[in-house]
Design a protein that fits this description.
single chain, alpha/beta
Length: 299
């Protein structure tokens, strides 16, 4: 395999193997056979003179040489796609965009932005992964990462999309059972990544009120905390957009109208130092435009 196109094909195959951690999975994605993928991997390893993956009966893992190559391979593929975009006579967007988004926002809201984008660009497909944990961007193979809160990776380019307003909510029944209790004495349901056992609220003058609680329920999943709140187990800090309908219909109540939790930034993170394909740039711009049009927070 001597042409640049062939070398790019080898790199694309290698990246797909790394992302799927499976030769058969890579073959399915690429529309080819597992033996063909295996031959391409062997050809790339022979060309470079290194072992890139270790194979077991269940999956493949990258060697240190494979990990080192992965970032360079993605960079080269991205730059080639950017060149194609600039010089192609057909400006129709096509290809796959790989996105990692937070579970609640990705399931309830951001999927609407993605669907709108795909309707506008029929040749675009999106690999939509929902995760709330912190990822290692370079190893995930995503094109962009939508993240609630700070992005703990200084190597990434970060764009703040919006800030989410959060308030303390509970059912009328729960509040009636604890009538007269101050907010810090009520039973609490906490979302581990943001509150834990420590509650921090702000009044209209931005004065801080901080106290510790022993949660009736602690979870790392917003849907679990929400359902427990809806069952009247306790009060919880939840995003305004998430409970707006419940507040409107009275199934949940704003427990402390003069107090709010800190607004959380929603960020979009991208790899730095690489030319991105037009489809990725335009998708990111579309998500930003969509956020600007939504009433997620008081800006």
């Amino acid at each position: 395999m001597s042409t640049r196109f062939d070398r790019l094909t080898l790199l694309e195959t290698f990246v797909r193997i790394a992302e799927r951690q499976s030769l058969s999975g890579a073959a399915r994605d690429l529309g080819t056979s597992q033996p063909s993928v295996s031959r391409q991997l062997a050809a790339l390893e022979e060309r470079l003179g290194v072992v890139l993956v270790r194979r077991t009966t269940h999956d493949v893992t990258l060697t240190p040489d494979g990990l080192a190559l992965l970032s360079d391979a993605r960079c080269m593929i991205g730059e080639w796609e950017a060149i194609e975009d600039r010089h192609s006579e057909n400006d129709e967007l096509k290809g796959t965009i790989r996105v990692i988004a937070p579970v609640a926002l990705g399931q309830r809201l951001f999927i609407k932005a993605a669907a709108k984008f795909m309707k506008q660009h029929p040749n675009i497909t999106i690999d939509w992964q929902l995760r709330d944990d912190t990822i290692r961007f370079a190893e995930e193979g995503c094109d962009c990462w939508l993240k609630i809160g700070p992005v703990p990776d200084e190597t990434l380019v970060v764009r703040e999309l919006t800030r989410v307003e959060r308030l303390v909510v509970g059912t009328p029944d729960c509040l009636a059972r604890h009538a007269g209790s101050d907010v810090d004495a009520l039973p609490w349901l906490t979302l581990g990544p943001f509150e834990g056992n420590r509650i921090e609220l702000f009044d209209e003058n931005d004065a801080t009120r901080t106290f510790n609680v022993r949660p009736k329920l602690a979870s790392d999943n917003i849907f679990a905390v929400y359902e427990a709140a809806m069952q009247g187990i306790g009060i919880a800090i939840l995003p305004h957009w998430f409970v707006a309908s419940d507040l409107k219909h009275g199934t949940l109540t704003d427990v402390a109208p003069s107090l709010r939790a800190a607004r959380l930034p929603v960020n979009l993170a991208l790899a730095s130092g690489t030319k991105r394909p037009a489809r990725v740039e335009r998708f990111c711009n579309a998500v930003q435009d969509w956020c600007n049009a939504q009433l997620l927070v008081d800006t």
